[in-house]
Amino acid sequence: MSETDGIMQMTASNLQDGCQGSVIHRAGWVIIDPWTIYPNGYVRVANGSIQEIGQGTPAGSDEIRDHGNGVIFPALVNAHTHIELCALKGRIATHKGFGFWVKDLIEKRALLDDNDLLEASEIGIQEIIASGCGAVGEISSLGLTLEPVRKSGLAGVWFREFLGDHFSNTENLEGRSGDLQTSLAGHAPHTTSPEALVEIKNRTRERNAPFSIHLAESDEEMSFLTTTQGPWKEFLLSRGIDTKSWGLPVESAVRHLHAIGILDNRTILVHVLHADQTDMNMIHESGAHVCLCPRSNFALHGKLPDLNGMIKTGIHLCLGTDSLASVSSLSMLDEMAFTAKNFPMAGPERIFQMATLGGAAALGLDNRMGTLVPGKQARLAYLDIQASKASRVMETLVNFSEPAETSRTLPFQSNIETITQ
């Protein structure tokens, strides 16, 4: 049975029950999933859950909220971001090479105190929500953003990130608080020992929680992993990280993680700019998710991932914005528009799927959000766009991107509405 068939059957059941105390959200268009769009559609919501999806004039509701002729759609999912770095927006050079960027980030972050970082994080969270996003995969290396993300009401996973030679198994994570789960992340195979990565991954396996890791992102990373030489080795030594026992060199970053048992369906591989067909087949067979951040990749490396190859291979894909240290906004609308412009063969439906259900699946939320299906949470967004037919709705939404307003610290999307009951 398709998801659309499920909608029709559950709608009939809810109509019979009467849906007492419900609210109807109506718009010119309602996107149920990337391939199912209702004209003159509505979403019936009660107690924070979707009760019914339909067309025309619904019956039996306490209240009808008509949002306009635009589109209601599932809240977007930013599967990889660093809200903790929002204070560094515009302060880090992205055009002088990845190694310079890393050193610049470390030095300039050290000049800021926790209050500076937290204040900027609060603004970043507001931007994320204002751009129609309902869930995040937040990567925190300092451990500062758990409470701000939790208080925001965003769903998703807050990852405490580790790097270096060792991992302390005394880290106490709280598990799940509402729709926000806490978990662990290894920074990357060129910054974190295999022993530490295996221990971190095993901790997440014990809790059946997602695990995130940056992978195959830069030329510096690939050169170090495959030769053990170069400036990256000297940089690690300057940070007190000795790599003699890491089992290097290796054939590729992907094959390295496969060899130490990191790849499985609860692993999120972020970036993956350097991957041949053997690597992509390995990722696909493991069931791992790949989170692409094309704007950040282009800004830092002047490269883009092989999205078309990953689609053909059948890899589970999602999208993230990365941080304001490398991109101009935390808007998933901007990320979708950039992806659509650079990968027209992917198609708007696929890109929208990556930004909704793909991200939800990577974060373990696909049974609760990502599509507008009765029984899922009512995390909805509305965008005031004009489209004369269904085929134009998705194309217009995915290619929508407002120019950044230079007078604002963080540009917000001015005509998107996050719907709450």
Topology:
Blueprint lengths: L2 H15 L5 E11 L2 E11 L2 E7 L7 E4 L4 E4 L1 E6 L16 H13 L3 H17 L2 E8 L5 H7 L2 E8 L13 E2 L2 E7 L7 H13 L4 E5 L3 H9 L3 H8 L14 H7 L7 E5 L5 H10 L2 E4 L1 H8 L5 H7 L2 E4 L12 H11 L5 H15 L17 E4 L6 H9 L17 E4 L2
Parallel strand pairs: 1-4, 1-5, 6-7, 7-8, 8-10, 10-11, 11-12, 12-13, 13-14
Antiparallel strand pairs: 1-2, 2-3, 5-15, 9-10, 15-16
Q: Any guess at the CATH architecture of the largest domain?
A: Alpha-Beta Barrel
Helical stretch tally: 14
> Poorly predicted ranges (pLDDT <50, ≥5 residues)?
1-19, 404-414
* Whole-number total of structural domains: 2
Q: Roughly how many Å apart are the termini?
A: 30 Å
* Share of helix, binned: 25-40%
Order of helices and strands: HEEEEEEHHEHEEEHEHHHEHEHHEHHEHE
Number of DSSP E strands: 16
Helix and strand content put the structural class at: alpha/beta
Oligomer: single chain
Mean of the pLDDT scores?
89
Radius of gyration: 22 Å
In CATH, what is the class of the largest domain?
A: Alpha Beta
Range of strand content = 15-25%
CATH fold name of the largest domain: TIM Barrel
Give the overall shape, derived from the CA principal axes. globular
The CATH homologous superfamily of the largest domain = Metal-dependent hydrolases
